[in-house]
Design goal:
mainly alpha; Endonuclease III, domain 1; Endonuclease Iii, domain 2; single chain; 228 residues; elongated
C-alpha cells in the first residue's frame, strides 16, 4: 500500500509541475463555454483526441445552443458516431441545448447545481466547466486523477468523491486552480495505468509508489519533460 505523501512533498510536486508547464490547459478543443460543455459531456468513456475529431465537424455544423437544438438528436448522432455511447450522448446534447435556451437564455450557467441539472452533466463535468471557463478552484476527478492520487500517495481515497475531497484539502491553495490539469496530464502521459513512465518523471523522488519502473517518457510531447 502506498504511503501518503507529506504536505511538503505535495507542495514540491506541484511546484515542479508548474515549472515544467506554467499554463496547463485542457486538450479538448472548444470555442465557447457551450462548446466546452458539449465536449466534456461527450468525453465520458472516450479520449480527448476522439472527441476532438468528432466535434470539429459537429461544431462547424452547430456552434451554439440554438443551432445544436435545431440540428437535433439524429443530426448530432451523425457527427459523433465514432464516440462510445454516441446515441445517449446525442440525446443529452440535444436536450441540454434546449434547456439552456429555455432556462438560461442560451448561456452556460455558472453554478454547479444548475450545471448538474442539465442532461448528461454530473459532478465531474460541472467541475471541469467551472474550473476551465471560470477558473474556480474545484477538482474534477477522472480515472487518471483517481489513479495518480492513490498511486503516488498524493490524496488516497476509495472512491472518486473521497479523492476529490482529499485533493481539495491537501493541494496547496496556490496551485489548486491548475491542479486538475497538471494531474490529468501527468496521468495521461507519465503515470499511465499499466506501465507508468517513472524513468523520466519529474516528481519521481517525491512519489511514494513502491513499484517504480525505469520506463522513459514518450518523446516530443509538450506537456511532459524528463527529469534532469
Amino acid at each position: 500500500m502506498t504511503r501518503p505523501m507529506t504536505r511538503a512533498a505535495i507542495g514540491e510536486a506541484f511546484a515542479r509541475w508548474q515549472a515544467a508547464n506554467p499554463h496547463p490547459a485542457t486538450e479538448l478543443e472548444y470555442g465557447s463555454p457551450f462548446q466546452l460543455l458539449v465536449a466534456v459531456v461527450l468525453s465520458a468513456q472516450a479520449t480527448d483526441r476522439g472527441v476532438n475529431l468528432a466535434t470539429r465537424g459537429l461544431f462547424a455544423a452547430a456552434a451554439t445552443p440554438e443551432a445544436m437544438a435545431t440540428l437535433g438528436e439524429a443530426g448530432i448522432a451523425a457527427h459523433i458516431r465514432t464516440i462510445g455511447l454516441y446515441r445517449n450522448k446525442a440525446r443529452n446534447v440535444a436536450q441540454l441545448s434546449r434547456q439552456l435556451l429555455e432556462r438560461h437564455a442560451g448561456e452556460v450557467p455558472r453554478t454547479r447545481e444548475a450545471l448538474e441539472a442539465l442532461p448528461g452533466v454530473g459532478r465531474k463535468t460541472a467541475n471541469v466547466v467551472l474550473n476551465t471557463i471560470w477558473r474556480e478552484a474545484v477538482m474534477a476527478v477522472d480515472t487518471h486523477i483517481f489513479r495518480v492520487a492513490n498511486r503516488m500517495g498524493l490524496a488516497p481515497g476509495k472512491d472518486v468523491r473521497a479523492v476529490e475531497d482529499a485533493l481539495m484539502r491537501r493541494v496547496p491553495a496556490a496551485f489548486l486552480v491548475d491542479a486538475h490539469h497538471w494531474l490529468i496530464l501527468h496521468g495521461r502521459y507519465v503515470c499511465t495505468a499499466r506501465a507508468p513512465r517513472c524513468g523520466g518523471c519529474i516528481v519521481r523522488t517525491l512519489c511514494q509508489y513502491p513499484d517504480k519502473t525505469d520506463l522513459p517518457l514518450p518523446g516530443g510531447h509538450p506537456h511532459v519533460q524528463p527529469q534532469p
